Write a sequence for this structure.
């Protein structure tokens, strides 16, 4: 057998059709074995590397660097002219599946709810839902995608985040790199790159299927940002603030992609 294989790979040997097929098959299996071995070695090597922040809560540093590189690439090609595909409102599901309930504490006094917007000069705006609803209304029907692997066409309405920024004189704040949002109980929080926050389809949302948001969907006000996965669509906004450094992000701290773009 050894001599047979050796003869197959002699450069001066003229092969029959059957011998040529055998040679190609052996070569293919060898390359497949090398590829598989390289994948196993790479996986074991990555598993041995420390996590980015030294904690098992985060993914290992090489994988985090890949995610960060992806963010740099996709943020460079991101454009407000590239819109998420939309659908007629009639295509929206009637029974919307909630994507998590972290930050949805049951002791919220909805009548006393306010959204606090922290300005860079230290001032804080305290706004109620009427301050939001007096701005121009817009709606978006799109395919909401969850990192758990499911998706639904859903119909939402509210105020463009970019219109909100202009109406309340926050253009200076919007020149910063990021916006951070937290729930009133501080249990859930996200960081959003400013370009995505100002995208024309990003809204401060107060309606689902033409009715006020249900409690489990973030009543009275939530973020809808179609260019991101569901983990970025923070429910029940309590505080908004602005920063040039990445704000804390609940799922990024647990190893998920910070950018989470689509």
């Amino acid at each position: 057998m050894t001599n047979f294989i050796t003869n197959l790979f002699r450069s001066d040997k003229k092969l029959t059709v059957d011998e040529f097929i055998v040679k190609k098959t052996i070569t293919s299996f060898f390359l497949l074995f090398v590829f598989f071995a390289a994948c196993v070695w790479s996986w074991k090597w990555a598993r041995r590397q420390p996590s980015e922040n030294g904690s098992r809560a985060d993914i290992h540093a090489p994988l985090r660097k890949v995610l960060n590189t992806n963010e740099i690439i996709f943020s460079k090609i991101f454009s407000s002219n590239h819109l998420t595909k939309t659908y007629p409102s009639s295509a929206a599901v009637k029974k919307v599946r909630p994507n998590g309930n972290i930050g949805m504490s049951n002791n919220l006094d909805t009548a006393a709810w306010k959204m606090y917007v922290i300005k860079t000069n230290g001032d804080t705006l305290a706004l109620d839902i009427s301050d939001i609803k007096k701005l121009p209304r817009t709606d978006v029907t799109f395919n909401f995608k969850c990192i758990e692997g499911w998706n639904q066409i859903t119909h939402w309405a509210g105020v463009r985040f970019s219109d909100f920024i202009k109406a309340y004189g926050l253009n200076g704040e919007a020149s910063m790199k990021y916006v951070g949002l937290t729930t009133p109980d501080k249990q859930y929080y996200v960081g959003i790159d400013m370009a995505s926050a100002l995208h024309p389809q990003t809204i401060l949302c107060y309606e689902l299927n033409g009715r006020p948001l249900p409690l489990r969907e973030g009543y009275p006000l939530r973020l809808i940002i179609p260019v991101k996965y569901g983990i970025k669509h923070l429910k029940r906004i309590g505080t908004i603030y602005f920063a040039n450094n990445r704000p804390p992000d609940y799922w990024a701290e647990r190893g998920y992609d910070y950018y989470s773009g689509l």
Summary: Residues 2-48 form one domain.
